[in-house]
Prior knowledge:
The chain is an alpha/beta fold. The chain has helices spanning about 40-50, 55-65, 120-145, 185-195, 205-215, 220-230, and strands spanning about 1-5, 10-15, 25, 30-35, 80-85, 85-95, 100-105, 110-115, 155-160, 165-170, 175. Helix 3 (about 120-145) packs across helix 4.
Amino acid sequence: MFHTYLGETLHFKCNYKNRSTTEIYLDIYGTVEIHAPKGTQEEALYRMLEDKWEIIQNKSKEMKTRLNGPQEKVYAHGEPFLYIGNAYPIQVHQNRSINKDYVQFEKDTLHIHVKQLENKSIQQALKRFYYQQCKVLVEKSITFHQHHFKTKPRSIRISDSKTTWGTCDGRRQLTFNWKLAMAPLEVIDYVVVHEMCHMVHLNHDRSFWRLVGKIMPEYREKERWLSLSSWRMTV
């Protein structure tokens, strides 16, 4: 089935079942599916789609894009990069007189200053910026949440892990992934709380999750953000 609205055509599936409510689902491929009571008129389905049209279209496109994996970066003016949960455009500036390439966040733009207009230089400058910002954001979060814990981290490191957002070892040494600087502040807070809770409980037993939930009751929402958005966190 399909429906055209606001100049866009949406293809969808409809499953009629013995149920009392109508609900819209999106599968992992971004396909829209409606579960409706038997006998529901098509006009009612169309009205429901129109009420949620923008949300459905955006979510469907996002899921289809995610399936294709990270898009290769070209480091062009205006290309968006994530920073503390939002996508900001970059502006690249060549300055042969600077001692070191650097990134400055100003007026909702990531200004990248490099000696050489080379993709590798731009990428390295961005990565260094995220490393620096991640350390600042993580340390601020640790300070904020420290009152929940009797012990303090022995050290804090920023790493380039391919598999974890954070770790805590038996000596209370905390390590965090530099890509966290791309996540919303509340998601950074969750990862920080998660690892600080490992200072008390090294494994993921019930006591550990109780402590996480006590400090951050809505932690599952933060986990979901990381699960759905990690593919976008690239340079």
